[in-house]
Each structure stands twice: as C-alpha cells, then as structure tokens.
Write a structure and sequence with these properties.
alpha+beta; Creatine Amidinohydrolase, Chain A, domain 1; Creatine Amidinohydrolase; 3 domains; 20 helices; 35% helix; 19% strand; globular
Length: 611
C-alpha cells in the first residue's frame, strides 16, 4: 500500500509544545512566531522531517499556517480544511483563522499590539510573503525578525532524518524534449534579459528541466533539489549524491554539475558577486536565498520560474502519455466501481474501498506492463457525513461502513511513468433521496459547463470559474474550493500556475492540464464531487464565428453514476454531452476489460439517458 491509514495527528501534545515554543520567545527577542505548512522547498507535500505544523498542532492538512503569540494560537486554513481542523487540534489551545479572507498579514494589524516583533524562519517563507508581513507589521510599528535557527527544531528532539529517495531518469519517450534542449532554451532566455543566472528552487521544475524523477516526498515524484542555470550555458544541480545511483549519476554528468545541497549558498554567493543579476521567482524561493544574493552585492531580478509555463503547457509526448495513463486508470476505476456496486451495502468500509482501488490500479498496471508507481495523493474515501469533509483522510479511528441510502465519494489518483491522474466519483449506495440527486445533478451541470466551454485567447481561470457554479448559485448553494487545479506530467498532482478559481489570473494556454471538479457539501450529512481531468486544445475556428476559440479535451474516462441524475434538470445539450461521454467511455475502456461480468456492468453503466 502506498497509503497509510494510521492516525498521525497528535493534538494531545499541542498545549505542551506551544508552551515550549513560547518559552523561547524571550531569548529570541520576539512576541510571536509563524509556523507554515511549507518546507524549505515551498512544496505542498513535505518530508516527515519538515512536518513542523503537524508536529506542533496536530493539523495534518496540506495547506495552513499557525501564528503563535503569548496570548493567541491561531491556525489559518482555507475552506477545504475547516472541518478537519476542528477535529484534529486541541480547541482549548488553538483557534481557527481564515487563510483566504484574513491571513496572517491581514490578522496582525488588526489584533497584534503596537511594536509587535514577529519571528520567522527565513528558509520557510518566500520573498513575496516577507514583503506582505513587513508591510503589515509597519502599520503597527512592528518588526519582522529573521531567526538564525528554527526554535521548533530544537524542541522536536525525535525529528526524522532527511529523505534519500532514489533518482531515476525520465526517458525522452515520456519527456518529449531532451534536458539539454530545455537548458539551452532557458540559457538563451537569460541572455536576452542580460541575466547572469536563474535560481531554480521548485523541485518539480528541477525534475522537469533535467528529465529526472525522485521519491523524497509522498506521492510527488521529484527529488528535493535546487539548481542554478547560467546564461553561459552551464547548470549546477544541488542534489545529494546518495540519491543517484550509477545510471542517474552518469546521465547527470552529461548535462550539469552535481554538487551537495550544502554547496548552494556558496555557489549562489559566487554568482551574485560583482553585481551578478540573478532571476528568482519571489513566489517560490525562500527569502534566505534572496538575502544571500543581496548581501553578496548581487541583484535579485524577480520573475517567473523559467520552467513554470513550459512545464504547464504539455508537449505532444506528455499529452499522449497522460491520455494513455488515463485509459489505464479508467479501466482500474471501472473494476473498482463494479466491485463496490456488487458488494452488499454495509459490508465495505472506507478503508477497504481505498485499499481495493489501489489494488485494482496495481493489477491493471501489471497486466498493461505500465506499473503503478504511487498514488498521486492520499485517497479521499468518505461515506455519508465524511463525504462532506472536502479533504477527508480516513484513518483506523474514523473508518466506518458504507451503508445503504448514503452517498459515497472517492477522490483518488495515480502516478504512472507516463502520466498523473486525479478522478472523483460520487455514487449512491442503494436508493438515495431526491434532494441528494438534485444537488448531484446541479454539480454535474457545472462540470459539463466547463467541459463544453469555448473561450478566446487571454481567458483566465477566474473567467471560467462561474460557469461551474451558476446552476448551484441559482439554487442558493456553492462550494468552498476552486473548480480546478493544474496537474503535472508524472509530477505534482497540484501544479501551477494554471487554475480555475475565483482568484486564478493566469491565462489559460494550449497544453495545460487541469482538473474539473465542482462539488457540494452539507456538513454532517453528505458531500458530492465529480471530477475529470481536461486539457486545453489549440484554438479552432467556429463556423459563423469571428475568431478562433480555445476549448477543452477530456482525459478521464469513467462512468458517472446515472442513477443520481435527474434528467429533467439537464438541457438537451447537457444530456447529449453526458450520453456522448458515456459512449466514448464505453468505446475506450471496453478493450481493456476482459472479465465478462465487468464488461456487462460497464455496458449498463454507460447506457443512454433520455428526457
């Protein structure tokens, strides 16, 4: 199993650990300390040795930050994690904060005293975050204090060791472009801007540029590494040699110089000397690194990570690989859904469902000679009231049976060498209420609206987001998460900068892969989400139109539960899309399924619906 169901949250230690942190304030000369979820690499998934927020508070969500002062202990989370936060922390110690509407830089001027001194670990915060905090503290004559060490690391006496996952080569058949060509393109871009070098701090960008993959963090196959790429054409990779075996080391020797991670500060200082102009992404790089450049007399030139957009706009090999991975994954999902539907209600638990789906993926992977490398995130397997917790993680303590009359939501994904998948299906276990069917159908309408959207060049994710919500809004309901996130190519399942969300301002470009996942959640009762992955097609002329329009192509093929659809709520266009999607699903997946009973189930699950 790639997923553990053990209870990892430790709220019982929150009071003691917060007291230990506060006891250090006086010696550090601070009035408060900020504890982000992020690690030194600013990634969503962090190694066990960097789970400082979870260690301190008990909260294990993938996004959040805690502000500890002498009188407050606030954990800021977004709408996905409000319920989880309440369940995982000692509420006599911690209070919840709003990461979207009142994040720490907004909270501080409203609640902190005059002259407040906020301590941070400069390796755990980006330059953009530091600017926001400094501006906020200036409003109350406060100060940001950059600490020489992280006080939590001295309290965390049994902190796990740093990971040493093996590095492998991503072959050209999957990557589509040679690493030397990617490096040359970046170097030429630096020359054009009169820059000496680019500091690459995002491990996914390092992996994509050099066509390598790793296993340092859960579910995201990149090695924890940074790089400096020079306009002159050289590249330096800061990666522990214990992670590279003979083949990988020989490969890397041909395209870059491999140095130990501890060598980064010295090489960065050398690049910055004599006014060296270094490109740094302020949303990705730790403030500590930009501080080194400035202290050595260099110039920090803020701009996008040069791999960010090229990585997001998949080439033909990456799109084709993803499409093949999704067909394989769809066959595994069909096998799983058949098993679930033919199991007697009340006999399957949430954990058993997650285990079965992973086993289906593994079996199909073996049969198709494209093994399951990992899951792309911990499977969200929730029945009834648990489905209303957007990022529910089932544990041995929370596990329950899936009963008749309930909705069951399973959000999962896989990592294959040729692609990353992410799919959510909500199914009815036996007969469910008309109210649940109504809301399911409204969610489906939003998903279809995104699937069928056509839009001009320049359209951003925020422009499309309302399409997924309008049917829900008309019914007086909404969902508290984005409609879609970017997805990598055998990399992170959550990849920027592309998104479909209220605040998503990145232009949507051909080749970008996104999720399409509207939902509805009634706390304490049920939750609904339907998710496919889609990619952006090149613009096409529309008959009778004035300009070419971009559109989406669906990657995910798996039946949507027809028993939950109230056909009378669908327009003819929506119903045609659903029937066509099911016909395509049947045609694409049937050749991959050899069991007679499962084939019959797929046939029935994709039958046409009519008004």
């Amino acid at each position: 199993m790639f997923q553990s169901f053990d209870v990892t949250s430790t709220p019982q230690f929150g009071r003691e650990r917060v007291a230990g942190l506060r006891a250090a304030f006086s010696d550090l000369g601070i009035d408060g300390f900020l504890v982000p979820r992020a690690d030194e690499y600013q990634g969503e998934y962090v190694p066990k040795c960097s789970e400082r927020l979870a260690w301190l508070t008990g909260f294990t969500g993938s996004a959040g930050v805690a502000l500890i002062t002498h009188s407050h202990a606030v954990i800021f989370v977004d709408g996905r994690y409000v319920t989880q936060l309440a369940e995982q922390v000692d509420r006599s110690v911690f209070t919840g904060g709003d990461l979207v509407n009142e994040p720490p830089h907004v909270w501080l001027p409203r609640h902190a005293k005059k002259g407040f001194r906020l301590g941070i670990d400069p390796w755990l915060h980006t330059g953009a975050e530091v600017r926001r905090l400094e501006k906020a503290l200036a409003e109350i004559d406060g100060k940001l204090v950059f600490l020489p060490h992280n006080p939590l690391d001295r309290l965390w006496t049994d902190r796990p060791p740093e990971p040493l996952g093996n590095v492998i080569i991503q072959n050209i058949a999957q990557a589509g472009i040679l690493a030397k060509d990617k490096l040359a393109t970046i170097a030429n871009g630096l020359k054009e801007k009169n820059l000496k070098a680019a500091l690459i701090t995002d491990p996914s960008s390092v992996a994509w540029i050099l066509n390598i993959r790793g296993s340092d963090v859960p579910h995201t196959p990149h090695p924890l590494a940074r790089a400096i790429i020079y306009a002159a054409g050289e590249a330096e990779l800061f990666l522990d040699k214990r992670k590279t075996k003979v083949e990988a080391e020989a490969y890397l020797t041909q395209i870059c110089k491999q140095l130990p991670p501890s060598g980064l500060t010295k090489r960065l200082a050398a690049a910055a000397a004599n006014g060296g102009r270094i490109l740094v992404d302020p949303d990705l790089a730790s403030y500590a690194l930009t501080d080194i450049i400035r202290r050595e007399g260099g110039e920090v030139v803020e701009g996008n990570d040069p791999a960010k957009l090229p990585r997001a706009c998949k080439n033909a090999a990456e799109i084709n690989g993803s499409a093949a991975a999704h067909l394989q994954d769809g066959a595994a999902m069909v096998e799983f859904l058949y098993w679930l539907e033919t199991s007697k209600p009340g006999t399957v638990t949430e954990i058993a469902a997650a285990e079965r789906l992973e086993a289906c993926r593994a079996r199909i992977g073996e049969s198709m000679q494209n093994p399951l490398k990992d899951i792309s995130f911990d499977t969200i397997s929730g029945a009834g009231e648990h489905a209303a917790i957007m990022h529910y993680r089932v544990t041995t303590a929370s596990d329950r049976r899936i009963q008749a009359g309930e909705l069951f939501l399973i959000d999962s994904g896989a990592q294959y060498i040729n692609g990353t998948t992410d799919i959510t299906r909500t199914v009815g276990i036996g007969a469910v209420s008309e109210e649940q069917k109504r809301l399911f159908t409204l969610v489906l309408k939003g998903m279809i609206a995104i699937s069928t959207a056509r839009f001009p060049k320049g359209t951003r994710g925020c422009d499309l987001d309302p399409l997924a919500r309008i049917a829900l809004w008309k019914a007086g309901v909404d969902f508290a998460h984005g409609t879609g996130h970017g997805v990598g190519s055998y990399l992170s399942v959550h990849e920027g900068p592309q998104r479909i969300a209220r605040l998503a301002v990145q232009e949507l470009l051909p080749g970008m892969i996104l999720s399409n996942e509207p939902g509805y959640y009634r706390p304490g009762h049920f939750g609904i989400r339907i998710e496919n992955l889609i990619y952006i097609r090149d613009p096409e002329e529309i008959e009778g139109g004035d300009m070419p329009m971009l559109g989406f192509e669906t990657l995910t093929f798996c039946p949507i539960d027809r028993s939950l659809v109230l056909v009378e709520l669908l327009t003819h266009e929506e119903l045609n899309w659903l029937n066509d999607y099911h016909a395509r699903t049947r045609e694409a997946l049937m050749p991959l399924i050899h069991d007679h009973d499962i084939r019959a189930w797929l046939e029935n699950a994709t039958l046409e619906l009519s008004h």
